[in-house]
Amino acid sequence: MSLRSPLSKVLGLGAAGDGPAHWWSQRVSAVGTALLGLWFIAGLVGLDLGDRESVVRWVAEPLNSVLLILLVVTASYHSHLGVQVVIEDYSRGWSKVVGLVAAQFIHVVAAGVAVVAILRLSLGG
Amino acid sequence: MAADNRPLSPHLQIYRPQITSVLSILHRISGVFMSLGILLLAYWLAAAASGPESYETAVALLGSVVGRLLLFGWTLAFFYHFLNGIRHLEWDTGRGFELPQVVRSGWLVVVLSLVLTLLMWGRLLLGGS
After folding, report:
1. Residues B39, A103: contact at Cβ < 8 Å?
2. What is the C-alpha separation between A72 and A78, in angstroms, rounded?
């Protein structure tokens, strides 16, 4: 006899309440980050990184701006999912709660700063 | 039984490192290291957006010996995590789990990530930046 309610069985969300959602998001964002990351690395190789003018010109190209924003957002999301698992594995109690909240805040702030910087460069602010 | 009195799984100090276990923890380490790289990416973009002076500062920081070593580490971490991630995605489809396959794909990831990192830095250094 199972102690699980029929509703819980139908929903299939397990004890954590979100089923395979975290696992699946991690894979999908991994594919996105991998493709965008390769594009970014290839772009960096062709750039003179010491010269601000050429970097700004590259970032301001409309296609580059869009892909760069997508990269920053997707990579931050993927990074957050990964760091979350690491914290859950290695810490207990309050340090776990504080670590999880801090990791989320830091990732959102980093993505926000980067996106605003890209917009400023592409819109010529 | 008290929670702190339970038998431990194989002890890390006496358990011989193997290609499987070493690559597994390296995937984590490279991932966490690249999380810090996102902060750097955000800083680099913000410095470029803030103007020539702040970009000069960023270039000086990243162009220093320590900066270059870190950038080299991030490149290696990227290629390793990228290639090993593909290995993980293959496993997710249920393939490649036989021990000889796991060992072969593991060494392939190690060699390819080193080759790609060196190729990229060769291009960067020859490119003059």
Report:
1. no
2. 10
Q: Which CATH architecture has domain B19-127?
A: Up-down Bundle (1.20)
- Give the CATH number for residue A26: 1.20.1300
CB pairs under 8 A between A and B: 92
- One digit per residue, the tens of pLDDT, for chain A of length 125 reads 678 888 888 888 888 888 889 999 999 999 999 999 999 999 999 898 999 999 999 999 999 999 999 999 999 999 999 999 999 999 999 999 999 999 999 999 999 999 999 999 999 85
Chain B contact for A111, CB < 8 A? yes
CB contact under 8 A, A114 and B49: no
Contact A36, A71 (CB under 8 A): yes
Q: How far is A52 from chain B (nearest CA, A)?
A: 7
Q: Is A81 on the interface with B (CB under 8 A)?
A: no
